[in-house]
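Work Package 3 (structural annotation) set out to generate three-dimensional models for the target panel prioritized at the project kickoff. During this period the team completed the workflow that converts sequence records into discrete structure tokens, so that structures can be stored uniformly alongside our sequence database. As a representative example, we reproduce one entry of 115 residues exactly as it appears in the project archive.
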Amino acid sequence: MVSEERVPADQASVSIKHIEDRIRNAVNAKKVRCTEYFKDYDRLRTGYITSAQFERCLDQLFSVQLSQPETQVLLSKYGNNPQQRGMVCYRDFCAAIDASESSSVATIINYLFCK
């Protein structure tokens, strides 16, 4: 699973949660699972794509345009595997984006039915 990474000082003002929430909202607005779009770039189904492909997918498919510091924060969290230099683990990224939607639904269900 993805561990929380330390963010460099120049990126401290950029919140990973805020970035992920923006992307999550864009994905939810399209009513799709983000994994399906990233798979198109991953012909060998390794779970990794290049950082350029990752950025292109966010921009062109989900209409999410990130600043350079925001992009660096995402890359430092999801592109930190030393065996996959220059690559982004889109599976971990999509799990984080899709999981929050599931946990939100579970929270609502628990609130409504488990009083």
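The longest helix spans residues 90-113.
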